[in-house]
Amino acid sequence: MYQIVILSSSIRKGRDSHRAALYLAKFFNQQNEIKAELLDLQAYNFPLFNERLRFLENPDQQVIEFAEKIKNADAIIIVTPEYNGGYPASLKNVVDLLYDEWKNKPIAFCTCSSGNYAGTQVLVQMQSIFLKIGALIVPSTLPIAQVQNTFSENGELVETGLLEGRTQKYYKDIINYIERFN
Questions:
Q1: Which of 2, 28, 131, 10 has its CA nearest to residue 79?
Q2: What is the pLDDT of residues 44-80, one digit of tens each?
Q3: 155-177, pLDDT tens digit by residue?
Q4: In the beta sheet, which residues pair with residue 77?
Q5: What is the three-class DSSP state of 40?
Q6: In the chain, what are the domain boundaries?
Q7: Which of 114, 38, 30 is nearest to 69 (CA)?
Q8: Are the C-beta atoms of 70 and 135 separated by less than 8 Å?
Q9: For residues 46 and 63, is the Cβ–Cβ distance under 8 A?
Q10: Alpha carbon distance 167, 102 (integer Å)
Q11: Positive or negative CA dihedral for 90, 58, 106, 179?
Q12: In CATH, what number does 2-181 get?
């Protein structure tokens, strides 16, 4: 059974991208070969880190547990909104906190926006950052436009159709990457 971590990166009130993270957690947990765990950065309430984990003198137990979950996952799905053409500071904070934990790890992206562009600007930035630190970028992406109209607050798909097929392909590509590189 493959362990996948779905990282919900927004910590804002009323965040709509978290709906997509909930949807993906449900979808992946319905697959026979997957155990998906949703890590919600809002629940962690991490401080602003000024150093990588391996250099912190007394890291909080919650930070160590978070790092272990990332390290032990077979793949990571990062769900991120696009804020002003970029990603949230909460995501940058944990990306820079870890290093070895991301290396050679299959990373897939689900980008969200309230507009029509589906987070395409943030996607390019995230791919670049994770390539730089040695992660394995899953070529398949799941950009979601009008995220607030796509899912209910608890992550249920409001409108069935194209997204279900795109999610199925996304899932298959992630599994392919896990099998190819693990």
A1: 10
A2: 988 888 889 999 889 999 999 999 999 999 999 999 9
A3: 999 977 789 999 999 999 999 99
A4: 6, 108
A5: strand
A6: 2-181
A7: 38
A8: no
A9: yes
A10: 23
A11: negative
A12: 3.40.50.360
- 165-180: b (≥16 Cβ within 10 Å) or e: eebeebbebbbebbee
Any alpha helices (H) in the chain, and if so which ranges? 17-29, 41-44, 61-72, 89-97, 120-132, 147-150, 162-181
Q: Identify the bridge partners of residue 35 per DSSP, sorted by sequence position.
A: 3
Using an 8 Å Cβ cutoff, are 60 and 68 in contact?
A: no
Which two three-digit tokens encode residue 52?
Answer: 């990588």
| Spatial CA neighbour of 158 closest among 169, 144, 171, 172 | 144
Please, which residues bridge with residue 78 across strands?
Answer: 7, 109
Q: Is the dihedral of CA 120, 136, 53, 42 positive or negative?
A: positive
User: Rounded distance, CA 139 to CA 10, Å?
Assistant: 23
Question: Token pair for residue 103?
Answer: 């290396």
